[in-house]
Sequence to fold (316 residues):
Amino acid sequence: KQPILEVKHLQKHFDLGSGKTLKAVDNLNFSIDRGETFGLVGESGCGKSTAGRTIIRLYEATNGEVLFNGENVHKLRGRKMQEFRRQMQMVFQDPYASLNPRMTVGNIIAEGLDIHGIISGRQRKERVSELLDAVGLNEEHASRFPHEFSGGQRQRIGIARALAIEPQFIIADEPISALDVSVQAQVVNLFKKLQKERGLTYLFIAHDLAMVKHISDRIGVMYLGKLVEVTTAEELYANPLHPYTQSLLSAIPIPDPEIERTRERIILEGEIPSPLNPPSGCPFRTRCPKAMPECAAAMPEFKEVKPGHFTACHLY
Ligand code: SF4
Ligand code: MG
Fold:
């Protein structure tokens, strides 16, 4: 069966002038099956948002391919491009900045319907009510403005907006990072519920692994513009291979104080290097507790070391 999304050797480089190139996304390879949630995780600046924006074609790719239902997104024109714009939607990180403060919630949600000329009049109103209900709000909210809502409610509005034109695929770029911890789980549960009801596929971007494990089927870990590990969520937690993934996992607190007291934390030394001037060889070597001389000499290849489990590290 064909994956809904295939990312092949995707690169997004930014030319910063005076001979400087920022390799924000460098040779990404992964695919997402229909109905699956793929978590994309890494520290801020690792290129995960740029990857999302290049996949949905807010940015043109420098190199490589993004295949959506088998078609190269970056080659689509005209009606096919319009159709793609309907099928893939984005939910943004900041629910305060991403909603137009001068538009009513109803008009925000219906904007996509209006742009694509899908429905009008009473149908439009019914559709907005149905969407508000689906995200845990109600029809009275349609005439209000974004500032009247809490962060969690605003993110629900952002989700309703993304759902309005019935996409198949949603890219959620750190949709819970700006929210209080107490509402994060509620929003994650809403994403899960909507996926079940509507058969959605998600690319779920996050900066840590704590929440992502509750929603993802598979997870990709990024570091300095590259994927360093991809496998199922279960396998990643049980058997992380890449030293960077191991350090991210060890940073998640465990609720059981007995385990928490005895386990070893992997504390990474130093800062994440500038993506403008990445280390030679393995990009993680300047912070890797297991670095060996050969790590400086050659870039480890991203390869399948166990069935369905990919990593880029000279240890394997
Ligand atoms: Fe660490 Fe070397 Fe593996 Fe890179 S290749 S993660 S430096 S052991
Ligand atoms: Mg980001």
The chain has a mean pLDDT of 93. The first helix runs from residue 48 to 55. The radius of gyration is 21 Å.
